[in-house]
């Protein structure tokens, strides 16, 4: 187990699209915060553990964007709760806006990818994800950990082989202790992924399973 301490400074997007609020120390108009996380490398995955409200979502989105720089789509699996998927989508969009403002203030014009967030909760969204994968466009796909949505994504990656990173939020709740079709689909996605990362505040099930 390795403890990672990381510091983040992002300018907060202002309501009018300007340069952000008053912020904290360091970057003008930005907020700086220190996070602590424990990481455990297992045979088939990386487990990331941290306290609640400690920046786990920011870690997931940052790691997803790093993979997108290598043209890898990110599949984010959350609990069977629509509110969790909506919250993660809002976090992705907020971080993307903050990053865009950060790059603009430094006159960085190159964009290695367009930040796309697609949810797997209806056929139209799945068609968009299908189109993006077919055309080699990296994206973030957010799905609930149920049989229907995992099945939709599994059908896409079976039909159009691609390199993707798999992130499982609250992995102790989503992935372990079940013998269901959803668990079987998640196992297949883990085997197909370039890298699987499980994120949780309570890692014991993940560590000893």
Could you characterize the architecture of this molecule?
The chain is α/β, with parallel strands linked by helices and 209 residues long. It has seven helices and eight strands. It has an eight-stranded mixed sheet with strand order 1-2-3-8-7-4-6-5, sandwiched between helices. The longest helix is centred in the middle third of the chain and has 24 residues.
Strand content: 15-25%
Give the biggest sheet. 8 strands, mixed
Computed CA radius of gyration, to the nearest angstrom = 17 Å
Mean pLDDT, nearest integer?
78
Helix coverage percent of residues?
A: 25-40%
- What's the N-to-C terminus distance? 16 Å
The succession of helices and strands, N to C, reads: EEEHEHEHEHEHHEH
- Given the structure, what is the number of helices? 7
Low-confidence stretches: 17-28
The class by helix and strand makeup works out as alpha/beta
Strands of the widest sheet, in order across it, are: 1-2-3-8-7-4-6-5
Please count the beta strands (DSSP E, at least 2 residues each).
8
The shape is globular
